[in-house]
Write a structure and sequence with these properties.
Elements (H helix, E strand, L loop, with lengths): L7 E5 L2 E5 L9 H8 L3 H12 L6 E11 L2 E11 L3 E11 L7 E11 L5 E7 L14 E7 L4 E7 L13 E7 L2 E6 H4 L1 H20 L26 E2 L3
Parallel strand pairs: 11-12
Antiparallel strand pairs: 1-2, 3-4, 4-5, 5-6, 7-8, 8-11, 9-10
Helix pairs in contact: 1-2
Length: 241
């Protein structure tokens, strides 16, 4: 397993400059796409086109496989961080005939200014926390990124805590703000994938917190910049329980 170091942020005067060493992640972006093996040349060209010549500071490639009866379905999500943008690419494929000779790829890209990102949330899962040691690996990591103000509502029947109570207590729920969610499991994706996700999240936080909203000479804050791309629906990707 490749040893890793975290991206560093160096302050100079009033500005912040992010320095990212690609070797800090387990693989380069091209290597990660090749290992995923999901139309790597096609995905690489689409991502390169979406970057518009920007340099990659950090990346996260997440491939999922689902079994639907006798059919195996895969899709890939690629996050690429630049100095000013978060570029998100998602690719699905679909078989049009029983013989599998006619296949189409559905591709979506979205470019989000890092200054527009509202929150970066990391959720960790550790096994046997009572025996925790600093060297224990994270069992599972969930990365949630919000930028558009979209919200997810989870609602379920409410209870009073009494297992014998049959009264109707209505419903309770939680509202979470998220635009994309990726769940990376050490068991399914490997320890390196979890570590790479942590490194990507640190780089994203560093760039996001270093960015600031410009103020006009009149002192007023300008309206938010329009989004460069829009997915048909919000992405929520990860290993389902």
């Amino acid at each position: 397993m490749t040893s890793q170091s975290t991206p560093q942020s160096h302050a100079s005067g009033s500005g912040h400059h992010i320095v990212h060493n690609h070797s800090s992640q387990g693989q380069s972006l091209d290597q990660a796409l090749q290992q995923a093996g999901f139309y790597p040349r096609l995905v690489a060209d689409v991502v390169d086109d979406a970057l518009d010549g920007r340099d990659c500071l950090a990346h996260l490639v997440h491939l999922e496989t689902h079994f639907d009866r006798a059919e195996v379905r895969r899709h890939i999500t690629v996050l690429v961080l630049t100095e000013d943008m978060l570029v998100i690419t998602h690719v699905d494929d679909q078989q049009l005939d029983d013989a599998g000779e006619q296949i189409v790829a559905q591709i979506s890209t979205e470019s989000v200014p890092v200054a527009q990102i509202r929150s970066v949330v990391l959720s960790y899962m550790y096994a046997q926390p009572q025996n925790y040691k600093p060297t224990d690996p994270v069992r599972e990591l969930t990365l949630s990124i919000a930028w558009s103000g979209g919200q997810r509502l989870d609602v379920g029947p409410a209870s009073c805590g009494d297992p014998q109570c049959e009264a109707d207590h209505g419903y309770s729920g939680t509202i979470s703000q998220e635009d994309i969610v990726l769940r990376i499991s050490a068991e399914a994706d490997g320890l390196q994938a979890v570590q790479d996700a942590k490194i990507f999240a640190r780089a994203l936080r560093a760039v996001n917190t270093a960015s600031s909203t410009p103020v006009s000479h009149s002192g007023s804050i300008p309206a938010p910049r329009p989004r460069s791309g829009v997915f048909g629906n919000r992405l929520s990707r990860g290993h389902q329980r």
